[in-house]
Structure formats: structure tokens, C-alpha cells
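Assess the record.
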Amino acid sequence: MKLRVFFRWFFYSLTLLLLYSLMCCGAFGSWQPYFIVALAVGVSMYEQEFSSSVFGIFCGLVLDMATGTLFGFHAVMLMPFCFLTALLSRNLIKVNFVNHIIATAVTLLAAFSVHYLFTYIVWDTSGGETVILSVLLPSFIATVVTAPAMYFLTKLISEKLSLAGKDILDLSDEAAESAEEIKKTSEPVKEDSK
């Protein structure tokens, strides 16, 4: 049981490292997909809120290293969106690739908007229109087009190493309850002596 949880998060992390390497190689030019955002959203659709938020923070920090932005910028952006995606996936929306594409697009649009706001509007830097047309828009389109691949990859990892929809927090609660039951049943029964 613990081994399945370990391997599930191991493969999520291994995928994150491979995507980081792919983003750093520069093979896509200005059409660079933000694979890591699509991965974080995909994991959030299959995991619980807390673990999704923590994974979103790590994905954001790795994305900051890959894109050269201020360290922590994408972590601050991805954490609440991963939390919301996990919350909505567990309670309101169906987990499918269409919703994954929509959640990825919304997350990326918010991250790009905040990046543009603090880089070009607040500091009144010239060339903002050129950056939108030559960098942000192509990256947005490339990420949305490649998002289904990230969805099916996270789905494969989650289904192969799943614990029937239970997360590690659920399992720890069940383990604590079963330990209390065992403790109650193993206590010696006191007999009344008359």
C-alpha cells in the first residue's frame, strides 16, 4: 500500500524532471510549451487538495528555474490553482481531458497575465506587445495543444498506482482507526469476582 503511494509520487516527480529537461533544451524556440503547468494541473485532477498544492509549489519552483523568472513566482501562481483544480475535481467537475485543457488554459492565462502585469505594465517597459505576440501567445497555444498528452500521462500513472481513489491522508486516518480498534480488542477483559 505504501509502496504504491511512493511509486506514484516517484513517477510524478520523474516526469517533472524529464519535462524540466525538455523545457531547458530549447528545441521549441518561441513555441515552448509549458509542460510543467499541464502536469501540475493533471496531477491535481487525480490527487487531493493538500498533496496537489504541495506538488504545485514544486512544479512552480522547477518552472521558475526552467524559464528564468523570479524564484517563487510560478510557485505562488500554481499552488492556489492546483488546490482549486483538486477541489473542483473531487466535488464538482468530471475528470476528463476537456476539463484538463480548460484548467490548464485558465492557469496559464492567469500566470501569463500576472507576469505581463509585473514585467511590462508596472515597470512601464517597452516591447510588451511584441512579447505577447512572439512569446506568450505561441507558448499558450503550444501548451494547450500538448495538454492532452500530460493528462493521459498523469491518468496512466494514477490508475496504475492507485489505491482506489484514496490519498495518503485517507490511508493514515484509516490506519489510526484500525490501530484503535486493535487496541480495544486486545485489552484484557476484567472479570468480576464474587
Observations:
- The helical segments are 2-24, 35-46, 49-67, 73-91, 97-121, 128-160, 168-186.
